[in-house]
Amino acid sequence: MKISKILLSTAVLASLSTMAFADDVNSANIQSNQIYVGAEAGAGDMGFNLDKYKSYALTNSGGYDIKQYNVYGAVHAGMLFPVTEALSLGGQVGYQMFGDHSAEASATVGNTTTSSKESEKISDFNAVAVVQGTYDNFFANVNGGLGYFMVKNSGSITNYNTGDVSVAPKSKNSVEPIAGLEVGYNFTDHFNTYLAYNHVFGSNTNNDFSNKVPTMNTVGLGVNYVF
To answer: pLDDT tens digits, residue range 32-69?
Structure first.
């Protein structure tokens, strides 16, 4: 009888110990790393100044049509590893598309009408390092890295001084540094949302169409699903 009670007690203690250990493992797994996927969208300054088309057309009794879509969208996936209870380090990869920009201008000199029509599309694949600080359910991220930018140009260019027409700058890919800041809130263990500011350190200093990436600043809203 005593042996039965001892065995029963041992079994109960072993079961409780196993359950406690399982809970500890689960907690450790939740806190050990954080894998997430998300999407982001917003608006900003894409670095284009297309007023020259308007000025040229008006000066030369012509017409103009300028379209600028200063918006962007992005998807990403990342992983964070805790360093302390309030600090995590990790990395993220993603893809962004920026709004198209186009301009068309025409001018009539005597019986001759010249025109210029250009458009530019920009997208990029990127990889950044992420530093995250947390306080209760709030978090703030600082990130920095590189983007592989794809600039696609089309159309023709009119030299406003000579009237000569040439093709748009050839489409070109390049690597540019990027950085960002995010402030957000964890609504659940698996869902959070955040406000983001992003900066592209562009190399286009003319602020118009070229095969170089312009300097860009964007502000947007994002959501993440955490596994």
So the answer is: 799 999 999 999 999 898 887 888 778 777 788 999 99
Return d(Cα 102, Cα 117) in angstroms, integer: 7
CA distance 70 to 31: 39
94 CB-near residues (< 8 Å, 6+ apart): 74, 75, 76, 77, 125, 126, 127, 128
CA 92 to CA 87: how far, in whole Å? 16
3 state SS for 175-225 = EEEEEEEEEEEECCCCEEEEEEEEEECCCECCCCCCCCCECEEEEEEEEEE
In three-state secondary structure terms, 117 is strand
Fold of 33-226: Porin (2.40.160)
Its pTM stands at: 0.80
- Do 69 and 48 form a contact (C-beta atoms < 8 A)? no
